[in-house]
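Record 1 of the preview.
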Amino acid sequence: MTNFRKSLIAAILPITMTSVPAQAQIIDIDLDLGDLLGVGLCIGGGCDDDFESPDDELTLAGTDVSILFNDTSVSPAPLNDWRININDNDPTGDSYFAITDVTGGQQPFRIMAGAPGNGFILDDTGHVGLGTQFPMRDLHLTATDSPGIRLEQTAGGPGAQIWDVVANESNFLIVDVTHTKIPYVIEADAPNDSLIITETGRVGFGVAAPEEQLHIRSNAPDTDAFALFDANGSGSDAAFRLRQNGLIPTTWEFRNQQDSGRLNVGIAGGNTPFKIDDQADNNLLRLGSNTETDVVRITGRLLVNDVALSVPDYVFKDDYVLRPLSEVKAFIDQNSHLPEVPSEKDIAAGGVDMTGMQMALLKKVEELTLYTLQQEDAITAQKQENSDLRDRLARVEALLTE
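->
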């Protein structure tokens, strides 16, 4: 067998040795390697007379081993030349298996020495396995701890940025490696439909078919469906806004004010007509009940502070002209309500100004007080007159009896 290999080499060497420097000899060999009777074929400067490799039909041996694929096609056909490279011929270099685009000057594929088993598997279904011999999905990645994928934009583009997608026994994470932040986390064993985004842009939390742009559903027993807006930074308010761009574009906001603890409801950047203090008592204001659907109940004190308020104490001034009761009666007979007090028709049409109504009623109470005092004066005068008449009558009766 050794003599046969030597004979084959002897047949080839004269051709290669007589080649012109910087030129390649054309060797046309039509050989059935099975004829080598299991010895195998060795090509390259690293082969020696004692070489035998019964497990390999072809061996390339040397200090800088490579195979060149030289495409001699004519343009416009593809023309790139390719090379298979084995290791760097340098004491400080790397050990690897690589495929190089010779024409393009790039090395798109490299396997480093020491790579683990099953580093890359393409099975008969087209599934790709990285770290597994039996890929179960189109791409199946395994590792003993926290398998991940890195997405890196180099500084050659708009700016350097690195993202990692990582999974482990506790979480699924998206990591902003560049800024050392973890903005996205899904805990293991999270419930079904925890986050859903539909084709219409609706977002569901706990619901597979959200019925509004934002739909939050609690499926577990005794679990409330709360939305928490948590301003955890110093000097930050917690708020949400409602904006529409209709005939009267407006943005309302509900704001938990950090410096007062108060809930403010108002126009964003504008007036705040409604405020609730954080120390307000329970059930201060209730609108209706199961038995009294039309009742507004205020359990605390109702204070009204109207800067335009005109308290009718002027009724008690000397120059105030009190309307005679005869005129009041005539007005009531004609209009069926008190003067200066809104009628039922007025209230039904335009509502009631509670402050104005209170002041109107106060004025009527004060006028009623004046009417009562007038009547008291009249009654007192009448009593005095009656007393005088009784005294005179008594004197007359005394004279008649003498």
